[in-house]
Design brief:
heterodimer, A: about 180 residues, Alpha-Beta Plaits, B: about 600 residues, alpha/beta, Rossmann fold, globular
Chain lengths: ~180, ~600
């Protein structure tokens, strides 16, 4: 009998983890974000990104969008545990590969460079709905909306055009077509 | 104009409307307005504890033995943090508690004021929900909602934090209408199809077993009755978790004893070999499953539970029935009786081989131990305690450790709500204050805390509470001078390096009892044990019973760490040979 030096059993076989986008509708009250985030940290779940804001001022509902990775069992647990929280109304879960769902993140890029480089920077962003929010003769701030990986690549590639600062949001999600999640 | 009430009055009006008769608490600066109001509400009796953890465990004992929520009232800062252990304990074992804490006045929150702490922040992970009341107009609704959350679905603790200025402010009081559903959360989520499927599985099974847990007890005494009816109607064997003891009579032939790490050989082997496992209100805890990859490999698994997040959390199941046990068992029995009349007889042949196999496992007599005429064996002490108290309606609480497992193995429970033990969190020091709470709820009944000498010292101060309120609780200490379970694990896993598990300088428990103003009794030999127990039972005052037991005895049988159910250690001899044999063991 191989003795394990523990009163607990060994970790079992692991399933393969997937990336999921979890959307949670909650009462917008004090501490509600702490409850949701605390559930993730307390149970060892992982948060890749998080976006939260009130979406219904009349009924006081906030929508939290969380990108997480986990095995199917863990993702199921995340959903079920979230649903148990008192201020949670409903929980939706989408796979990142899901073609019926739109995922978007927004990023703000600040460039400090000469005119030529600033123009090239804007040019490089053109596939991602770029908007110039601020411009001086040696700097500008460009807003883009894109997928996480696209923004990752952009932040890397734009260094050469004088990118000095990046600010980005977590992902938000919306289903395609006329259907809404009940 | 409607009458205006102060926040403190509203607290008590709510407690009155919730039919609360006892609260356990400890005063302090931030709850003084509430304490001041106590005199005006005669229907509510306050029990003054000696430490806020004691208030929490007493409220747990009260709740578990009655099925009603337990209420505690403590002050801000240290009052709240001292209650955290009890709240976490209640959270793990699904005990309904309502904890009311004082808080510094709202204008001082966030300033590191005297006795300020972030109570709702600290208790967020150990309550079902908590509230900081910042507006007097919310207080009544929050209080009533607190009771609703604590008692509906899977029960658990909640906390209401009330700043001192809110306790003084005035508002109208309105009783609370129960919401349709709390944010659309429903608890009965199964269909007749699920029930039909379950009955189909029952009728096909050749090696079935019921595996029942604390959920049956939480569902009310009717659930236990229904469970008995179903188990008798099927003729299937049944095993129970630590928390479920009492929902099926332990002396019944169909009962295989407790399962899990220190469960019986027959229960664990039956779990391993079964082809149908019907989990009723248990949660596949790691002390139950052992090695999860080899947990009951050949069985179809059915899980009946009120908490959807318990389903597939640790073990994947084939059929999940989410609902209150009482309601699910009612539907099951109704359908079962209609379609399978006389099933237990007609099906007898189908499961006869299974019962034969179970009898073979039973014949190992895994709970036997080597008796002694010189020293009191702890198992023997529990056996005698059971024999001498079984005719009374006895309530047992325990601390945590070897004594707890021996109590679970050797004390036979026949009714629900008679067994209060800290299972999930494993809180040493639980049993004594829990006994206080049980005795408050059942003043005429016999309440015994089966304790270890190390555990009981953690909350010994509550003897003073027991004496103050004339609570004749019996603290039955199995004293082996060791933290026995720690020592057992050190023996098994750490080459007998008994690092810090021996308690030198233990107090003289008999003198200690006298110092508290109660009665101390000591038993040293098996010969005098019965007389001393009878002396204890005949004493109508709190008793500390110092039972000096064998210092080396270990708790068997056991599933060693990382092993599946079919690889149990049966006893000390087995441990040396590292394989399962039942030989070399004398019967007592």
């Amino acid at each position: 009998m191989a003795n394990s030096k523990s009163a607990y059993s060994f970790a079992g076989k692991k399933q393969k983890p997937d990336t999921h986008i979890i959307v949670v509708w909650v009462d917008n009250e004090a501490g509600v974000l702490a409850r949701v985030v605390g559930l993730f940290s307390g149970r060892g779940y992982n948060i890749e990104s998080l976006a939260v804001a009130e979406v219904d001022q009349k009924q006081n509902i906030s929508r939290i969008t969380i990108v997480t990775t986990g095995t199917p069992q863990v993702v199921d647990q995340i959903k079920l545990q979230l649903k148990k929280l008192v201020p949670v109304h409903k929980v939706a879960d989408f796979k990142r590969e899901d073609k019926n769902v739109i995922f978007k993140e927004m990023a703000l890029f600040k460039f400090v460079a000469n005119n030529g480089k600033l123009n090239k920077a804007f040019e490089a962003c053109k596939n991602f709905n770029p908007v110039i929010l601020d411009r001086t003769n040696k700097s500008n701030v460009i807003q883009i909306t894109a997928l996480r990986r696209e923004i990752d690549t952009m932040s890397k590639n734009l260094k050469k055009f004088g990118l000095v600062s990046v600010s980005r949001t977590g992902a938000v999600a919306m289903t395609r077509g006329s259907e809404i999640f009940k | 104009m409607p009458k205006l009430y102060s926040g403190a009055e509203i607290v008590f009006k709510c407690l009155e409307d919730q039919n609360v008769s006892h609260i356990f608490g400890y005063p302090g600066g931030a709850v003084l307005p509430i304490y001041d109001e106590l005199k005006n509400f005669n229907s509510i009796k306050h029990i003054l504890v000696r430490h806020e953890q004691g208030a929490g465990h007493a409220a747990e004992g009260y709740a578990r033995s009655t099925g009603k929520p337990g209420v505690l009232l403590v002050t801000s800062g240290p009052g709240a943090t001292n209650a955290v252990t009890a709240l976490t304990d209640a959270y793990m074992d699904s005990v309904p508690l309502v904890c009311i804490t004082g808080q510094v006045p709202t204008h001082l929150i966030g300033t590191d004021a005297f006795q300020e702490c972030d109570t709702t922040g600290i208790t967020r992970p150990c309550t079902k929900h908590n509230w900081l009341v910042k507006d007097i107009n919310d207080l009544a609704e929050v209080m009533h909602k607190a009771f609703e959350v604590a008692t509906t679905g899977r029960p658990g603790p909640v906390l209401v934090d009330i700043p001192k200025d809110i306790q003084f402010q005035k508002s109208k009081y309105k009783n609370y209408k129960k919401n349709k559903k709390l944010n659309g959360k429903s608890h009965d989520n199964y269909s007749q199809k699920n029930i039909d499927e379950l009955i189909n599985l029952i009728s096909k099974a050749k090696k079935p077993i019921f595996y029942t847990g604390g959920g049956v007890i939480n569902s009310g005494s009717k659930a236990s009755e229904l469970l008995r009816e179903l188990v008798y109607a099927t003729g299937f064997p049944i095993t129970s978790t630590l928390q479920g003891l009492g929902c099926f009579p332990a002396d019944d032939n169909q009962f295989l004893g407790m399962l899990g790490m220190h469960g019986t050989y027959e229960a664990n082997n039956a779990m391993y070999s079964c082809d149908l496992m019907i989990n009723v209100g248990a949660r596949f805890d790691d002390r139950i499953t052992g090695k999860i990859d080899e947990f009951s490999p050949k069985s179809k698994k059915v899980h009946i539970d009120i908490d959807p997040s318990s389903i597939n959390k640790n073990v994947k199941v084939d059929l999940a029935i989410v609902g209150d046990i009482k309601s699910v068992l009612t539907s099951t029995l109704k359908t079962f009786k209609k379609s399978k009349n006389n099933f237990s007889k007609s099906n007898k042949h189908q499961i006869s081989n299974w019962w034969e196999q179970i009898q073979k496992w039973r014949s190992k007599r895994s709970l036997d131990y080597i008796g002694s005429e010189e020293t009191i064996k702890p198992q023997y002490a529990i056996e005698r305690l059971y024999e001498l108290t079984k005719d009374k309606d006895t309530y047992i609480t325990t601390e945590v450790g070897q004594h707890q497992m021996w109590a679970a193995q050797h004390y036979k429970f026949n009714k629900p709500n008679r067994w209060m033990t800290s299972g999930g969190l494993g809180t040493m020091g639980y049993g004594l204050p829990a006994a206080v709470g049980v005795q408050i709820a059942h003043p005429k009944k016999l309440v015994i805390d089966i304790a270890g000498e190390a555990s009981v010292l953690m909350t010994m101060q509550e003897m003073s509470t027991a004496v103050q309120y004339n609570l004749p609780i019996k603290i039955f200490i199995l004293n082996n001078e060791y933290m026995g379970m720690v020592r057992q694990w050190q023996e098994l896993l750490h080459d007998k390096n008994y690092s810090e598990s021996y308690t030198a300088a233990l107090p003289d428990f008999v003198k200690m009892a006298e110092a508290y103003g109660c009665v101390g009794i000591r038993a040293k030999t098996p010969e005098e044990l019965d007389d001393k127990i009878i002396e204890m039972l005949n004493t109508d005052r709190p008793v500390i019973f110092d039972c000096l037991v064998d210092k080396q005895e270990n708790c068997f049988p056991m599933i060693p760490s990382g092993k599946p159910h079919n690889q149990m250690l049966l006893g000390p001899k087995d441990q040396k040979e590292k394989k399962i044999t039942g030989k070399g063991r004398t019967l007592v």
